[in-house]
Amino acid sequence: MAKKKKTEEKSVKLSQRHADAYINGAGTVVGEPITVTLEKNYMPYAMSVIVSRAFPEIDGFKPSHRKLLYTMYKMGLLTGARTKSANIVGQTMKLNPHGDQAIYETMVRLARGNEALLHPYIDSKGNFGKAYSSDMAYAASRYTEAKLDPICKELFADIDKDTVNFVPNYDNTMTEPELLPVTFPSILVNSNVGIGVSMASAICPFNLRELCEATIAIIRDPDYDALESMKGPDFPGGGYMIHDAEKLRQIFDTGRGAVKIRSRYTYDKDANCIEITQIPPTTTVEAIIEKVIELAKGGMKEVAYIRDETDLSGLKIAIDLKRGTDPDALMRRLYRETPLQDSFSANFNILVNGYPKVLGVNAIIREWISFRVGCVKRRVSFDLGKKKEKLHLLEGLERILLDIDKAIKIVRETEEESEVVPNLMIGFSIDEIQAEYVAEIKLRHLNREFILNRISDIEQLKAEIDELTDILGSDRKIKLIIIDELKKVSKEYGQDRKTEIIYIDDEPLEKPQKEIPDYPCRLILTKEGYFKKITMQSLRMSGEQKLKENDVISQEFDSTNRAELLFFTDKANVYKAKASQFADSKASLLGDFIPVALKFEESESIVSMVVTLDYSGCLMFVYKNGKAAKVALKSYETKTNRKMLQKAYSDKCELVEILNVGEGADVMLRSTNGRAILFNSGMVLPKASRDTIGVQVMTLKAKSDVESAHIISEEKSSELSKYRTKTLPAAGPFAKDLSDPDQFTL
After folding, report:
1. What does the pLDDT look like over 336-378, one tens digit per residue?
2. Per-residue confidence (pLDDT) for residue 9, from 0 to 100
3. Helix count (H) and strand count (E) of the chain?
4. In a domain, 456, yes or no
5. DSSP string, 240-259
6. Looking at the structure, do residues 408 and 332 belong to the same domain, yes or no?
7. Does the annotation count 121 as an active-site position?
C-alpha cells in the first residue's frame, strides 16, 4: 500500500513538472516568415476548396453534384418512380456530410423545374423556384419529388464495369466514384459557376447537337476547329447572342472572354405593350423591373407601367408604353441602360488530374476525348476479363465431358470434403478454380446434355475474346466506339438552339417597312457585273438584250420584286440588296453596275448572284481542291438591312462555283484530268459557320483540280447514272461522253 502511494506521489510531481514547463513557454512568440505560415496553413485550405468544392472536373461535375446524382442512381431513381426530395437528401448525407440544406440547394439547381440547365439532370415535380427570379423561392424538400432525368443514362453507362475509380466515403462505410463515365462532353453542355480561393470558374453551356458534331470531328482530325461546328454558347433561357467573331475565337482558344446576351421581346400593337419573354442568364426579372422603374423615375417618359406577368406558361415582363412611343427605339435604350442586355464572362477553369487549368473549348474537348478513351478501354478490358474467366471455367467443364463417371467416382470415393477439389485437379489436370466450379455443379446437372449445352459457347466466347482483344489494342476502334456513342446521344437528346445568333449591329426586331409592291420579273446578271430587273410585260415586248462589248449574261432568274439578292465576290464578301431597290429596266439598257451601286471594294468583282424569297434551303460552295461546303441560306439572313457580310465563304482555296441546291439537288463535278462524279447534295451535311472549308467530295489525282460544278436536271440524272457515287469522297470515272460540260445542266 505504501509502495503504491509513493508511486502516485512521484507521478503527480512528474506531471506538475511538465505542466510548469508548458506554462513557462506559454505566450512565447516565435518569428516565422508570413510566406511559410501561408504555405503551411492557408494553402491546404485553398486547395481543398478548389479541388473538393468549387471547380468541376472533366466529367462536368463538382463533388456535390456527383455525390447527389450517384446517390439517386443507387436509389434506383433512373428507372423508378419519383420519391420525396427529403428522402434523396437524407440518403446523400452518407456521401456528403455538409448539411441537408446545402444538398437540397444543389438538387434544386439540377432540376428541370428550376430552368437553370440546358439539359437538366433531375426530373422534378413541385415548386423548385426559377433561376431567372430571386423572389420565386423553392418549396421545402418534404413537399417536392424527384427522379433522374433520362439523359442520366449517359452519365452512369457501364459505371459497374470498372470504367472509373471508386474511393471510400468520409467514414469508410461505402465507396463513391471519383468521376462519372459520361458518354458526351457534359462539362460544356450545362453551365457551371464556382468561386474558389483566389480563382473562379464560369463555364457557359453549348448546344448538345453542335458539341457532339464538333467532338466527332476532333476525334477524326485533332486539328479541327470546334468553332466551325459550334455557333457559340446556347443558354437555357434563350435570348439573342450578339455575334462577335473575335470574342468567340478568344473563348474557343483561351477559355476566357465574354459574350453579350440580349432579351427577346415582342410588341403587341393593340395593347401598345412590349412583352419580354427571354432574358440573359446573368440577371433576374426583379433586377430588370427595378432598373426600368429607376429610369422612369429619372425622366424616361416612354414607359407608362411595368409589371411581372410570369406564370406557369413561363417568363413574361410587360411594359406598357405611352402613346406615340417607338417600341424598337425604346428597347435599344433599355438594352444600353438595363440588364435586358448583359454579358456572360466565360472563365473555363476546370480540374484536370486534380489541378486547376484554364482551357479553351478545343482543349477541353480534347481532354474529354482522352478521358473517355480511358473509360472505354477499361470497360472493354473488364468485359474481356469476364469472358476469359467464363472461358476458363468452360474449358475445365469440357475436360469433365471426357469421363463423367470418373468425376462422380472421384467425388464419391473421396473421404474428406476438403480433398474433393484437389482430387478433381489431379484426376482431370485442371486448376483449382476449374475444379471448384466443377465441384459446385448439382448432381442433376452431371449429365452429358447439360455439359454439352454449357460448353457449346466456347467457340463464340473465343471469337468475342479475339474481337475485344483487337479493340483493346486499337485506338482507332476505341474512338469509333466513342463516335457511335456521341451520334446516339446527339440523336436522342439533341435539340434546336434556344439562343439565337444576331450580328453586332442587328436589332431583335425589324422596324416597320413600307409596303413593297409585288410583281413577277426577270433578274439578269452579266459577267462584267451589270444587273437588270425587267418586268415580264416589258420582256415580252423587248428584243435582244443590250450588253457591253464582249460582255455576256452569266445568270438569269424568274422571280418577284420582293426577292432578296446576294452578290458574292472574289474577296469572300457578300453584298446584300433587295430587288425592289433597283428601278425596272429594259432590254435596250445596260442596267445597274453592281460594284458601283453597292460600293464594292477596289478591284472586287462578282462571282455569283443568289436569289431568295425566304432564305430557305442551302448553298453549296465547290472549291478547286475537291472540297465542298454546304451552308444554310439562313446564315446570311440578318435582322437589319446590313449591306455587306465578310467571310461569306472560305478563301483558303480558289472557288469554282456557288450552287443554290435548295433542300436537295443532284450535283456534278468535273476535274481537269477528265473525271466526273454525280452525287446528291444531301450527302454533304450543312455547316454552322459561313467560312468553313467544307469536306472532301472529289478525290483528285496529282496536278488535277475541279474545273466545273453544275446542278443536274432530274430528267438527265438517269442518263448520267454511271457517274453517280454512293460514298464521298470519290474519284469518279473518266467522262469521255461529256464533251460539252454544260449539256446536262439546268
Report:
1. 999 999 999 999 999 988 888 999 999 999 999 999 999 999 9
2. 55
3. 20, 33
4. yes
5. EEEE-HHHHHHHHHHSEEEE
6. no
7. no
